[in-house]
TrEMBL record:
InterPro entries: YjiS-like (IPR009506). It holds the Pfam family YjiS-like. Residues 11-42 form the YjiS-like domain. This is DUF1127 domain-containing protein. It comes from the Bacteria.
Length: 54
């Protein structure tokens, strides 16, 4: 049971990661700059959204 729950949690986290990457990628460079984000940061920010900070 724990293995199945772990797999489900990982699947949900991957979905959060993909959704965050998508939402940030559709923003213009100006919108990202207004948020203090550059495109190189998107992967790290999505990872933090899904799995938390390191």
């Amino acid at each position: 049971m724990a293995a199945i729950q772990h797999m489900q949690e990982n699947r949900a986290r991957r979905a959060i990661y993909r959704q965050t990457v998508h939402e940030l990628n559709v923003l213009t460079n100006r919108d990202l700059a207004d948020l203090g984000i550059n495109r190189a940061m998107i992967g790290r920010l999505a990872h933090e959204a899904a799995w938390g900070t390191k």
